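Milestone 3.1: sequence recovery, worked example.
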């Protein structure tokens, strides 16, 4: 008998997920040869990767562990001021809206999955820190540990979590660490030009006209938020459909292999000699 197989570690599972996201299901040999995952999956065979991915897919569909999952609380983004909002750029509004939609959709995708995901925590941390040159792994981990209850091995798992988000184009890796896509837009605000002293007496009149426009601006901002939220939900719904189709295709391939194995077994039981090409 061969040596007993070791239990899969959480680091190996994360490496397998990231490999499938990057290369696709069925590319087991390619995933093993990838330098990003080879150090974690060197002791596993192609069959091990295939069987483990099938078990993980079944568990993600709701047939695995029924242990309840605690969903991390996501803090809301600060409200946009109405009277002094002229210093904000349109790109900053779109960035804040995109971050909120990403956090909401990530939080919804975590319901019913096992093991728990920490994507929402990572996105919340990067959105709050907003480092233009990227946030280091240590700083991200410290922020999440202060805001949420995480397991003791969370610091070890954070690296693979970040790599997976980079592969999914949700965040980007820079020289110093990680940051949200186009995070530099949210940190840029226009510098007000110095006005001529002779025109300063006209400021009270301009402030009155701004107050009259505020209701229209608020309505436009609200409509933009709703449109962006609908687009984000539509995107993640299409991603979920693609994932379901992928799992269905894997199930069909598994059924075909089972039928082939059954046929081979029956022929061998009758004493026939099978030749495999």
């Amino acid at each position: 008998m061969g040596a007993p197989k070791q239990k899969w570690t959480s680091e190996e599972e994360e490496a397998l997920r990231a490999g499938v996201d990057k290369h696709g299901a069925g590319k087991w040999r390619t995933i093993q040869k990838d330098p990003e995952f080879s150090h974690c999956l060197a002791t596993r065979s192609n069959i091990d990767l295939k069987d483990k991915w099938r078990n993980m897919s079944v568990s993600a569909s709701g047939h695995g562990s029924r242990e309840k999952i605690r969903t991390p609380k996501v803090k809301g983004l600060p409200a946009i001021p109405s009277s002094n909002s002229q210093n904000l750029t349109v790109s900053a509004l779109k960035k804040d809206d995109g971050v909120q939609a990403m956090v909401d959709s990530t939080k919804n995708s975590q319901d019913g999955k096992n093991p728990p995901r920490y994507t929402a925590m990572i996105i919340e941390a990067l959105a709050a820190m907003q480092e233009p040159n990227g946030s280091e792994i240590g700083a991200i981990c410290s922020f999440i540990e202060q805001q949420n209850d995480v397991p003791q091995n969370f610091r070890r798992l954070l690296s693979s979590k970040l790599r997976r988000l980079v592969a999914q184009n949700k965040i980007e890796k820079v020289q110093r660490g990680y940051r949200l896509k186009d995070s530099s837009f949210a940190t840029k605000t226009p510098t007000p030009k110095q006005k001529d002293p002779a025109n300063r007496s006209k400021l009270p009149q301009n402030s009155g006209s701004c107050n009259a426009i505020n209701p229209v601006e608020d309505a436009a901002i609200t409509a933009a938020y709703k449109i962006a939220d609908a687009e984000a939900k539509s995107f993640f719904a299409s991603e979920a459909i693609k994932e379901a189709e992928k799992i269905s295709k894997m199930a069909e391939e598994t059924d075909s292999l089972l039928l082939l194995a059954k046929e081979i077994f029956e022929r061998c039981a009758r004493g026939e000699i099978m030749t495999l090409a």
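The CA atoms of residues 34 and 240 lie 26 Å apart. The chain is about 60% helix and 0% strand.
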